[in-house]
Amino acid sequence: MEVIIQPTADAAAELVTALIDQALRAKPDLVLGLATGRTMEAVYARLVRRHREQGLSFKRCRTFNLDEYVGLPVGDPASYRSYMNHNLFAHVDIPFAHTHLPDGMAADLAAACDEYERCISKCGGIDFQLLGIGNDGHIGFNEPLSALQSRTREKALTPATVKQNSPLFADPSRMPRRALTMGIGTILDARRCVMLVTGAGKASVLAQAVEGPITAMISASALQLHPHCTVVVDEAATADLKATDYYRWIFENEPEWAPFRAKPKN
Ligand code: GLP
Hints:
Elements: E1 2-6, H1 9-26, E2 31-34, H2 38-54, E3 62-65, E4 67-69, H3 80-87, E5 99-100, H4 109-122, E6 128-131, E7 153-156, H5 159-165, E8 178-181, H6 184-188, E9 192-197, H7 203-211, E10 229-234, H8 244-253
Parallel strand pairs: 1-10, 2-3, 2-6, 3-5, 6-9, 9-10
Antiparallel strand pairs: 4-8, 7-8
Helix pairs in contact: 1-2
2-amino-2-deoxy-6-O-phosphono-alpha-D-glucopyranose (GLP) binds at residues 35-39, 66-67, 132-134, 140-141, 161, 165.
């Protein structure tokens, strides 16, 4: 795992966008794992801009979202399908049939989860998985005590998650209490993981996920097991991290990051 610190939330979103851009141009038929949440809106807005202004194409890309609420019609404005259409899919050249989210309206939810896993495999597995983190340490909707080898399945949401996400519903009491989510094992199978964490409110959970022990209590800590995981954060989120000098040194000195460093002004 590596942690990359950027001065602001905008700079962190810009770097994550640049990583997706790089991956997509290198492999136009990229299988891209996507996340929702407020943090990701800045990334999707930038991807849309790059599509419009810099010819970034999603035509051959296939996407798999991490999760979807159970029992929420896809047309509901608070569904993750609506979120993705609104923030990304409707504004780029991705064919609708290439975009996938778990089917939270399926009559047989367990079968829908198995089908989701099969579909990911049929596409060759996820090349690049974008992730955010919940206040309780979840990735996707892998709430505390999610098995570290779990696959796509139905999960009950914690009160912390309900508190975090219910303001996104016109009537917060209507937020579903269950969701379908890729498992931690599904996420760890992705060839590359990139987690974006911004804001002082995430400082404590970020430190637990990155520098704490691997524990099912903080499902994001399982990313420490991943062979190629990058965590991109802003200054505000670093408040509780211990090894920030090392993380800064990596970004300033490792050749991999040279194309992403600000060019010196003449
Ligand atoms: C939801 C999603 C997570 C996401 C989280 C972060 O809970 N299921 O995948 O990481 O939101 O949300 P925000 O960016 O709004 O803090």
